[in-house]
Amino acid sequence: MQAQQRPRQRAQQPAAIDAEHIGFAYEAVPILEDVSLRVEPGEFLGLVGPNAGGKSTLLKLILGVLTPQQGRVRVLGQSPKQARRRLGYVPQYPAFPRDFPIDVLSVVLMGRLGTGSGLGAVLGAGLGGWRKRDREIAQRTLIDVEAGDLASAPIGSLSGGQLQRVLLARALVGEPELLILDEPTANIDQRLEGEIFELLARLNAKLTIVVVSHDIGFISSYVSRVACLNRTLMCHQTASIDSELISSLYGEPVRVISHDHPHDHGEEPHGQAATAAGAGAGAGQHG
Amino acid sequence: MNEFFRALSEHAFLQQALIAGLLASIGCGLIGPFVVVKRITFLAGGIAHSVLAGMGAALYYGHDPLTGALVAAVVAALLIGWVRLRWRTGEDTAIGALWAIGMAIGILYVSKTPGYATDLMSFLFGNILLVPARELWFMAALDGVLLVSVALFYRQFVAVAFDDEFARLRGIPVDLFYLLLLVLVAVTVVLMIQVVGLILVIALLTLPAAVAGQWTRTLASMMMLATALGVLLTSGGLAFSYAPDLPTGPTIILLAGALYLLSASSAGVLAKRRARRAVRGMSER
């Protein structure tokens, strides 16, 4: 995570994500219908929607794990598979066994895979062990996510919140241009949820972020734009969300609790989010 | 025991047996931990048993059984790997089928080969006392293959074993390294067949690594401890079995099993004691 990469001129950069008229079905079950989504560099997009609405499927299409039957996905101006190494990804559930004998620093270092050139680019890493530079970057990234003291802890000893920070560090350590998070706060308490989103808001000064959540009210005060997905991309607007819209998205009346979060966007270029969160400083409680 | 050490200084066959044990321990220490943490014990068992097809065929056609074993093991590993990567499910059925079919083919070949039936017994249960010097060189070469592969691709193997989904997203050719890992498991199986035989291979491959995993916190230290335990178990088994003239392979395996039980129960007791102490510490505060 090096700050040297200043955001270049917007106009010259390809869209971070450019999905055009995506159609996708598992066997005969349609999951996505005519979904078009364009995410500009520097955006902080919240992707919300009900369970089974296709959020994870859309992520998998962006990551190149799945291929759409219809339409086309471009990521950072490349095909999803080519763009993979320029992405950071935080999964909803860690796919590894918690009893694996490995310490936190080694887990974070795995995010450095695929950053090399030459043979290292083909095999994911060069030959032998990690270089000193990789270790330093991993250590620094752990400090950035406020988990610097966990470097030598076994991965199985972490709490849910600590593990989430480590997964975030693993995604950031490859110096991605686009960060994709799938329900990053599903398994942690609300105070930590706020802290993680504060952190993401700070990171947004340097990179494009897409975060999937089912918690539409909560994320709307942090992100610069919300996309709502329920088989089709139902709404795609910039202001914060009202209860009418949530009801139409979920198909039934939903109890909506309004809450505001104090947070500092730094050189945040997106006016709407800052305005939405500007009121009610100090009331950081959620729900 | 003294009798063993006296014999060891006198008899070349015992010294060769000891060296064979050391060479097998390197494989057990390098690859065993991957089998344990990746939870592919059943898969390794399938590879081990299907090796009999290769040994039987080699014997029947007049080739070296170990070469036949190596070919069969690698073919079995690639077949199982291909089934898993191609269909994602049904892997365990395929392993079970390969396990039994491989043995059936091997037994047919062995029964049609004129000669000693003891060959079959030493394939199945090993005969560390009959390892010729030529085969020690073969084992050393296999160890070389394992050492070089793991040293070169340590990071890739750990990444694929730990979280293959993430490794794939980082651009690692996951399928390639998964197949390579299975081939290394196959090589290790062949390495150990001389010592404990193909039926007992699975215990020597997994038990030292499992014990090491109970006392270490990184894969690298698990590998080193597993290698040391392998040395201890093979040499110990050789020493224990010598005076009472017991078959060495089963003696090694029983030692390994006893060590595993001891380790698992004491690790459990220690964990309970730590938890009790932590709770007491809380109430005293």
What report would you give on this structure?
The complex is a heterodimer of chains A (287) and B (285). Chain A is α/β, with parallel strands linked by helices and 287 residues long. Chain A has 10 helices and 9 strands. In chain A, the strands form 2 sheets. Chain A has a 6-stranded mixed sheet with strand order 5-6-7-3-8-9, with helices on both faces. A 3-stranded antiparallel sheet of chain A has the order 2-1-4, covered by helices on one side. Helix content of chain B is 86%, strand content 0%. Chain B contains 12 helices and no strands. Chain B starts with a helix and ends with a helix. The model of chain B has no long low-confidence stretch (mean pLDDT 91). Chain B is globular. The relative contact order of chain B is 0.16. Chain B is mostly helical and 285 residues long. Chains A and B meet through helix 4 of A and helix 8, helix 9 and helix 11 of B.
The succession of helices and strands of chain B, N to C, reads HHHHHHHHHHHH
Distance between the termini of chain B: 53 Å
- Report the helical percentage of chain A: 25-40%
- Low-pLDDT sequence parts of chain B: none
Q: Please give the number of β-strands of chain A.
A: 9
Structural class of chain A: alpha/beta
Q: How many DSSP helices of chain A? A: 10
Q: In total, how many beta strands of chain B?
A: 0
Shape of chain B: globular
Number of helical regions of chain B? 12
Low-pLDDT segments of chain A: 1-10, 258-287
Helix content range of chain B: over 70%
